[in-house]
Structure to design on (366 residues):
């Protein structure tokens, strides 16, 4: 969820090494869970992608080694991680199967969406323009959700479908890629405040979240963006190897804007609830005090090439660390499974100010 973010300049550095192999995965439907949350619907970027980009013609993908080296079966599923990502841990916490990638499910003529589905796509941003044509934009993901909602109404009936969606969790992680692009195109010293940029993102996000509500989402889990300025890729660009202050500042402002948007929505719609995770503050704890949080390395990437393993992403030709649980970052943009596990635990059972106005366990029980 949290953490750094995504592949963006990925395409340049990796073009030579990546073979574009389209992998079609098959999924069997899990039984509908008996708990208060029947399903999870996921929207977002590479922090939550479980393989949608495998089905796109794009270089923003992770369906090759050494990704997945710690995933069951050592399988490179398309997750931008050595193992599981945050939505996998969220599903585990609820006793549900991690929802499958929408583009894999939608291939079946009698696709079943009642157990949840994951629309997240590596590279996606709040803005359509972010990694345009390289991913499913957030708007496109909402378009697909609209078809899913129509399909559920057809299979379950209008009122049952509405009840089902209202009980389900909608997990959202979006914004990191917009901020990375912004930071990379800024020259930190001379740039004005990122507030106008953040305001414009927030305005787009506001309409997108309203659309989500209008389609029947009533329990929103919003995973704010991490301190993206501390991802190895942005650190590596600094002569002192410090975090990008511009990116981290934008991340804090964006999370604050999301908090205010969600607060206003919940005030307006009495039937909507949410849990907002301050991924930035949470992950900064790991980065500022690695040892206290069980990590040995919070700056360099585990898998990659070049300075801090951050010049080139994680490819079959990259080097990777032996002890993945000791690293905060898996590759130049993404957290390790160990980081995702710890952050999700904080979001699930933690308290304000990191997760507010309630934690995910409380939201789920409503
Ligand atoms: C984003 O793209 C969609 C089409 O995919 C378009 O309808 C929409 O107006 C675009 N939004 C913005 C803010 O450009
Ligand atoms: C991996 O690193 C972590 C954090 O430093 C440490 O606690 C753990 O013992 C290490 N595991 C191995 C197998 O060395």
């Amino acid at each position: 969820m949290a953490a750094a973010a995504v592949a963006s300049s990925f395409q340049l550095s990796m073009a030579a090494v990546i073979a574009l192999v389209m992998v079609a995965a098959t999924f069997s439907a899990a039984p509908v869970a008996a708990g208060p949350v029947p399903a999870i619907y996921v929207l977002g970027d590479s922090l939550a992608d479980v393989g949608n980009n495998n089905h796109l013609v794009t270089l923003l993908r992770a369906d090759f080694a050494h990704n997945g080296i710690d995933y069951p079966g050592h399988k490179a599923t398309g997750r931008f991680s050595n193992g599981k990502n945050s939505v996998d841990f969220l599903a585990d916490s609820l006793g549900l199967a991690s929802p499958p990638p929408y583009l894999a499910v939608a291939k079946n003529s009698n696709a079943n969406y009642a157990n949840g589905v994951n629309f997240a796509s590596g590279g996606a941003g709040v803005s359509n323009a972010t990694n345009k044509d390289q991913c499913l934009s957030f708007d496109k993901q909402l378009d697909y959700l609209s078809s899913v909602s129509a399909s559920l109404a057809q299979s379950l009936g209008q009122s049952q479908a509405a009840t089902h969606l209202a009980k389900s969790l909608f997990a959202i992680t979006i914004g990191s890629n917009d901020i990375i692009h912004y930071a990379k195109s800024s020259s930190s010293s001379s740039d004005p405040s990122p507030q106008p940029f953040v305001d414009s993102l927030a305005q787009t996000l506001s309409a997108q979240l309203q659309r989500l509500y209008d389609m029947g989402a009533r329990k929103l889990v919003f995973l704010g963006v991490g301190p993206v300025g501390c991802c190895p890729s942005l650190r590596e660009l600094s002569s002192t190897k410090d975090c990008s202050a511009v990116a981290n500042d934008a991340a804090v402002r964006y999370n604050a804007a999301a908090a205010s948007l969600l607060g206003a929505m919940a005030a307006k719609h009495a039937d909507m609830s949410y849990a907002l995770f301050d991924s930035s503050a949470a992950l900064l704890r790991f980065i500022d005090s690695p040892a206290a949080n069980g990590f040995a390395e919070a700056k360099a990437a585990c898998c990659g090439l070049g300075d801090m393993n951050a010049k080139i992403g994680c490819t079959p030709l990259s080097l990777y660390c032996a002890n993945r649980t000791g690293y905060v970052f898996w590759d130049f943009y993404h957290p390790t499974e160990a980081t995702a596990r710890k952050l999700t635990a904080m979001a699930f059972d933690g308290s304000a100010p990191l997760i507010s106005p309630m934690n995910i366990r409380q939201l789920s029980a409503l």
Q: What stands out?
A: The longest strand covers residues 40-44. The domain at 36-278+333-365 is CATH 3.40.50 (Rossmann fold). DSSP finds twelve helices and eight strands in the chain.
